[in-house]
Design brief:
This protein has helices at 19-22, 32-41, 47-50, 64-78, 138-151, 168-174, 200-210, 221-238, 292-299, 319-327, 349-352, 361-364, 367-379, 384-389, 399-407, 422-430, and strands at 4-5, 10-12, 81-83, 89-97, 110-121, 130-131, 153-154, 158-162, 182-185, 191-197, 215-219, 247-248, 254-255, 262-269, 276-278, 281-284, 303-308, 334-338, 341-347, 393-396, 413-417, 441-443, 453-454. It is an alpha+beta fold. It folds into 2 domains: 4-277 and 443-454, no CATH class; 280-418, Conserved hypothetical protein from pyrococcus furiosus pfu- 392566-001, domain 2 (2-Layer Sandwich), CATH 3.30.1760.
Length: 456
C-alpha cells in the first residue's frame, strides 16, 4: 500500500527572511491581485517560482519556467534556501474559522486540521493505492509539467487523505506537546504551525502506521497526475521499475529508489475532526443571446423553478441571503443568478433521469453531477469537452464574487451550489468513479513554501 518517506527538505532560512512574507497560497488559488501582493511582500517570495509573471518578450529560451529555475538556483546559492542536515517528517496543524455563509456545516466555528508532510511514492490509479475524486484540466497539467521539468523541485505539497480511526500517526506526531518550530498566520487568518520530526524511531512508527493505508487525493490532482507521468518517463530512461523497492539511509530509514519516484504530500486522517469542504460555484460566460427568464423557462422541463423575490427595498438578494435559501432547501438544489432574476432549481426526478442514464446511483445523486449533466450540458448546450477545456465556465469559492461577475456582465449566469460531503467524495473515489472538475474546495489550503523537495 502507501509508501512514505522522510526527506531532507529545502527550506527558507528564517534568519534571512520573514517567513510570513515568502509563503503563498497554492498556485491555482492565486488571483492576479494576490500575485502582485506576493511580489511586493518580499524579493524572495515563492510566487517567483510557482507562478511567476509572464513577459511580452518571452521565448522558448527565456520564459516563466526558465526564470523560475534560475530564481530557485540563485536563492540556493545565496543561502536563502538551505537543505536540511537530516531526513525528517513535518507535523503540520492549521487552526481556522469556517468561512461564514459558505458552508452549511460549521460556518463561523473554529476548527483545527492536523496532518504531516512527507514524501509519498507515486502510483498509477490502476494500482488502487492512490484514488482520485474529480476530473482534471489538460492545460493545467501541461503548465505544471513544464514548471517541474525546469525546476526539478516540488515547492508545494499536495493534500492527501487516509483513513485511520485509531489515530496512530497523529498520536505519534503530536502527543509530546512540544512547541512548533514555525508559526505563520496567512491572509485568511489561518494559523499554520509546523514541527520538525527527525528521531528515527518516531519516523519509523509513523511510516509503519501508514504502511497499510490507501490514499485519496483531496487537492492536487493535476500535480499528482503530472508527477506520475514524469515518474514513469524517468523510470524508463533509468531502466528501473516504477515500483522499485526503496533504498535505505544510513539510519535505516527508507528513501525512494530514484528521486522522481515520490513527491511531497501533506497527509491528513479523514477520520479526525477538522476537515471542511466548501462548495465551488460556477459562472458561465460567452453564452450567445443568453436571457435569464428564457433560461428559467427552459429549465422548468427538468426542475421546479422558484423565482427568489427581491428585498423589500427592491434590491436583488445578496450572496448570504441566497446561500441561506440554498442551504435551507433539502436535497439537490442550486441557484441560478442572472441579471434578469434569481431562481432556485430543484430537480424533477423523472424528467432528469434519462439525462443521467449510464451513471451510477451515487453519481446521479450529486448536486454537481446534475448541474453539469442537466443544466450546463442539456439546457445551456455546453459539451463536456468544452466545459473541461474551461472555455465557458469559471470556478469560484466566493458566491459574492460570482454574483459580482454577473452584475458587471463578465458572466451571463452564476450557479450557486452546495458542498460535496466527505462521505460522498469517499464513496465516489473508492468505487473508481470521478466527479466533474472543481467539485470540492477543501479549506484551508496548504501553504506553499513551508518545505520543498528537490530532485537534484
Amino acid at each position: 500500500m502507501a509508501r512514505l518517506y522522510p526527506f531532507r527538505a529545502l527550506r527558507y532560512d528564517p534568519a534571512r527572511v520573514n517567513m510570513a512574507d515568502v509563503v503563498t497560497q497554492p498556485y491555482d488559488k492565486i488571483t492576479p491581485a494576490m500575485q502582485d501582493a506576493y511580489y511586493a511582500a518580499s524579493p524572495f517570495n515563492l510566487i517567483r517560482v510557482i507562478l511567476g509573471r509572464q513577459l511580452p518578450g518571452d521565448t522558448d529560451a527565456e520564459n516563466v519556467y526558465t526564470r523560475a529555475a534560475a530564481t530557485l538556483k540563485e536563492w540556493r546559492a545565496q543561502g536563502v534556501l538551505k537543505e536540511e542536515a537530516e531526513p525528517a517528517l513535518y507535523g503540520y496543524a492549521q487552526t481556522y474559522t469556517v468561512p461564514g455563509g459558505a458552508a452549511a456545516d460549521g460556518a463561523g466555528t473554529t476548527r483545527e486540521r492536523r496532518g504531516f508532510i512527507a514524501l509519498g511514492q507515486l502510483h498509477d490509479y490502476a494500482d488502487h493505492v492512490v484514488y482520485r475524486h474529480e476530473q482534471t484540466f489538460p492545460k493545467h497539467k501541461s503548465d505544471r509539467l513544464a514548471l517541474f521539468k525546469a525546476t526539478r523541485a516540488y515547492c508545494e505539497q499536495i493534500y492527501m487523505l487516509y483513513s485511520d480511526p485509531t489515530f496512530t500517526a497523529e498520536k505519534a506526531i503530536f502527543e509530546s506537546g512540544a512547541a512548533p518550530e514555525l508559526e505563520i498566520t496567512d491572509e485568511y487568518g489561518v494559523l499554520h504551525r509546523v514541527w520538525k520530526l527527525t528521531e528515527p524511531e518516531l519516523i519509523a512508527r509513523v511510516l509503519e502506521a501508514m504502511a497499510d493505508k490507501w490514499l485519496l487525493i483531496a487537492d492536487g490532482h493535476h500535480r499528482y497526475e503530472t508527477s506520475t507521468a514524469y515518474m514513469q518517463e524517468r523510470a524508463a530512461q533509468l531502466g528501473v521499475k516504477p515500483d522499485a523497492p526503496p533504498a535505505l539511509t544510513a539510519t535505516g530509514l527508507p528513501q525512494p529508489a530514484f528521486p522522481e519516484q515520490a513527491m511531497m504530500m501533506t497527509l491528513v486522517n479523514m477520520d479526525a475532526p477538522g476537515i471542511t469542504i466548501l462548495p465551488t460555484h460556477r459562472v458561465a460566460h460567452g453564452l450567445i443571446g443568453f436571457n435569464g427568464r428564457q433560461f428559467a423557462a427552459r429549465a422548468e422541463a427538468y426542475f421546479t423553478v422558484t423565482e427568489i423575490a427581491p428585498t423589500p427595498n427592491g434590491h436583488a438578494p445578496d450572496a448570504p441571503a441566497l446561500l441561506s435559501r440554498l442551504e435551507q432547501t433539502p436535497g439537490v438544489a442550486f441557484i441560478a443568478a442572472t441579471r434578469d432574476g434569481n431562481f432556485l432549481l430543484t430537480p424533477k426526478p423523472q424528467a432528469i433521469a434519462p439525462l443521467l442514464a449510464g451513471l451510477s446511483e451515487r453519481r446521479q445523486q450529486l448536486d454537481v453531477t446534475q448541474l453539469h449533466k442537466v443544466v450546463l450540458e442539456k439546457i445551456l448546450g455546453l459539451s463536456e469537452e468544452t466545459i473541461r477545456a474551461g472555455s465557458n465556465i469559471g470556478y469560484l469559492r466566493e458566491a459574492s464574487e460570482a454574483l459580482a461577475q454577473v452584475g458587471s456582465a463578465n458572466a451571463d449566469v452564476a450557479f450557486l451550489i452546495k458542498p460535496v460531503t466527505l462521505e460522498q467524495m469517499k464513496d465516489i473515489s473508492l468505487n473508481l468513479e470521478v466527479m466533474p472538475q472543481k467539485s470540492t474546495d477543501f479549506y484551508p489550503k496548504l501553504l506553499s513554501g513551508l518545505a520543498m523537495y528537490t530532485l537534484d
